Amino acid sequence: MSHQSEAILENNLIKQLRGLEYASVNIPDGEALVSNLQSQLELFNETTFTAKEFDAIINHLAKGNVFEKAKTLRDRFQLNKEDGTSFYVRFFNAEDNSKNLFQVTNQISLEGSYKNRFDVTLLVNGLPLVQIELKRSGLEIKEAFNQINRYQLHSFWSNHGLFQYVQLFVISNGVNTKYLANNKLQSVKQTFFWADANNKNVTELTEFTAAFLNPTHLGKMVAHYIVINETHKVMMVLRPYQYFATEAIIHQVKNSNENAYIWHTTGSGKTLTSFKASQIVMELPAVYKVVFVVDRKDLDFQTMNEFNAFKKDSVDVTDNTQSLVRQLTDNTKLVLTTIQKLNNAVSERFAGKIEALRHRKIVFIFDECHRSQFGETHDRITKFFDKSQLIGFTGTPIFAENASKNDLGKRTTKDLFGNCLHKYVITDAIHDENVLRFGIEYVGKYKNKSKAFIDIEVEDIDKQEVLDSEKRINKIVDYIIAYHNQKTFSRDYSALLAVSSISNVIQYYDLFQQKKAAGEHDLRIATVFTYGTNEDSDEAQDFLPEDEVDFDVMAEPITSYQGKHTRDKLESYIGDYNNMFGTSYSTKDSESFQKYAQNISKRLKDREKENFNNEKDRLDIVIVVNMMLTGFDAKKVNTLYVDKNLKQHGLIQAFSRTNRILGQKSQGNILSFRNLKKATDDAITLFSNKDAIEVVTMPDYEKIAEKFDEALKGLREIAPTYQSVNELESEEAEAQFVQAFRKLMRAMNVLQSYTDFDWEDLLIDEQEFEDYKSKYLDLYEKVKRDNEKQKTSILDDIDFELELIHRDQINVAYMLKLLAQLKGSKTESAAAVQRKAIIDLLGGDIQLRSKRELIQKFIDENMPHIKDGESIEDEFEKFWQDQKVLALGKLCEDEHLDKAQFKALIDAYIYSGREPIKDEVFQCLDNRPSILQARVIGDRIIAKMKEFVEIFVKGMMA
């Protein structure tokens, strides 16, 4: 079957866009782009600009990076015209899209570090706002994505940086089409299919163009549905279900006073959707105010930070009911508060102060409305604000099947909020790869070090004394210690341990600490609990309660504990935490305890940041009863250990702490020490359907092992042995090998997260797998070298997915331990085996490969002169510093750099992670290069600087 060529795809697309009333324009290069921009801006602004005036506009547009330019696009520029008048130049009309001018062009060439030619460009008012990259059918869509990343690096900044105004990229191979926001640090995980209102994906380029790229829709996306995130300094674009939910809310508020709710599964980005809905609804003429309601104090702060990231200073926390009343009565359009403060505000004490609002249209948006709305508060709010309109968001609605009774009877989400406006359930999210599946293991037996099976009483045990017995809990703690590294990829991720009661928390925590003191593990454990679960009660909550009063202390700071014993224990546990992390929290006042809980939450969330210090700040396991099992999001949590009975929405909420997408994380791991199989199946069926169980949960270990065998067979057809990779005759064959081994690594990544994993079950041993991996990394380095020499290769666009290569924590301390073992080898053959193990390790680890040559040099030239293993650390440190000084000296000599100045520049880069700009590099040179040579020389020196840091700094911290 012949594949449709890229040229045919491009021509058909342009023809379709013309039919959608895009004006076709021929723009071959940067000069024509600037000339077209002037004529379009003059038409759009209904004026003309002199050459000097247009220069001022171009200089204004050239300032800043992609993020700052996104703001410039939406702003106006005050131009001082030559006739002495002042004129406000607009670049985009967000209020009335029909005033914007849409054009299409193709094959624009720009010269930057390299010459690049772009496929299809959509211009709005002369500025390139959408860039479409096409690949012929049959090729991976990822190749178009990788091409965009190259363009950003090589040429988007050239020609006044006009291509940095691109807001959206579209990538397509004709049959698969995705869109993404323009960001520097982007991942293919941030590319989305468009869909219709029923979540049916629109994948074909022709259908996508009709639905998404028509000027009306595209104008609306750019105007309202791209969010400029202030915290991370990136643009975010809404996914289709977020767009349709927001549009449905706007329609509901404009055309009705009826309440309604949105059912979007946990982890699908409800906060962004609700923020966007709040932001648009508050501008509607009929709406007096929007009040966004959360049901716990920690979510108050969390939501404030997220809202203010989406738009600076958009909300302020209401510290107390008084400040809420003030915000309700002043001109604040968007108010963020907790359900408890809102309840107080409508009480007799404050009602007089807000009486004037009684008949105003106020829209209340309730986050997590499955929890916060089942007490009397709901009735009080609706009775007081007689023109109020309530919109709820939930990932797990309350149906008749999972409703709990209170004084007002059993009430469902529909009873309280009316109809569901938009639905996006867990199966939709997994299908779209917006959340991960759950890998669930029910642990009944495990092997200890002597390979004997240990029983953990799991099956249908219901006797509390068996569940709480020290013997059973001791086995579970041993199990977690044995498998935690495997589950969290050598502690690259964190875990939660959910238990039934506070007394269980105390049992678990004390056991972990005893075993730590005995040297059985070095895991960093913390716990957070409150008065909210009654330690003495037979009715201890074993599932998440629905009523806000019982939920947990994070609603408001209350420090009454059920017993002095509990309080003292918690105080000592917080003391352990303070010693671990240099903090000073306490239960002695509510604010300090509140900050302790927030610090745990922040510590887990911050792990996903690039500059997070894993060695110093990592927390491995948090033991909880109910807290953090709902409403808490941290992408670096991938495992939940469960020793409590969960059901219905409580189960889905708790499991969903683990399944946020990040890098090559393959699933959310659930290790259950109770038999929750039926409860899990029932919960998945309730919140999607009975056919969903296979979609939501990972297959058994045996099924994944079969997939691995299949992938291995495919690899051996291309390269029967690892040595045969050297004999691959063409780049096409090398590309096939890369794709085949990548497939094998993906299967291995999933396999290794199962506790049943054993190399003996596989048709390849660990050494051979590592040998293949070395060849894979050799090809990756070859591509890197070719790029530096400006050679193009078909391997350029293949994603090597290096995140798949998980390793034990290998740093200088680990290397030195191995070197000491080498020194201590009793025989030559033992030394040879140890030396080979070290060299293999250097070849298989991404970070250590760059250091391989130097470490080998140390082994060959320095080790023979070292008398014993104990002095290796000092000798290696001295060797490393000497080599570092020599390398820096050579770099500075080769490039004519001032050594002191350049070293200061490197130190600043190591400290901040910010790449220096070329002017900073040129200040270190003896002579500033000519304009023609500047970019090439600047790029070369920065590349050498990064290589220096990669070799001598990264991964070398003890």
- What radius of gyration results from the CA coordinates? 30 Å
Number of helices: 37
Low-confidence stretches: 531-561, 806-810
Mean pLDDT: 82
- Work out the number of β strands: 28
Feature tags:
single chain, 958 residues, alpha/beta, six-stranded parallel β-sheet, 28 strands
Describe the model.
By secondary structure, the protein is an alpha/beta fold. Helices cover 46% and strands 14% of the residues. The chain contains 37 helices and 28 strands. The strands form 8 sheets. A 6-stranded mixed beta sheet has the order 1-4-5-6-7-8, with helices on both faces. A 6-stranded parallel beta sheet has the order 15-14-16-17-13-20, sandwiched between helices. Strand 11 and strand 12 (234-237) form a beta hairpin. Helix 27 (701-718) packs antiparallel against helix 28 and helix 34 (872-895) packs antiparallel against helix 37 (931-952). The protein is globular. It starts with 5 loop residues before the first helix and ends in a 6-residue tail after the last helix. The model is unreliable at 531-561 and 806-810 (pLDDT under 50).
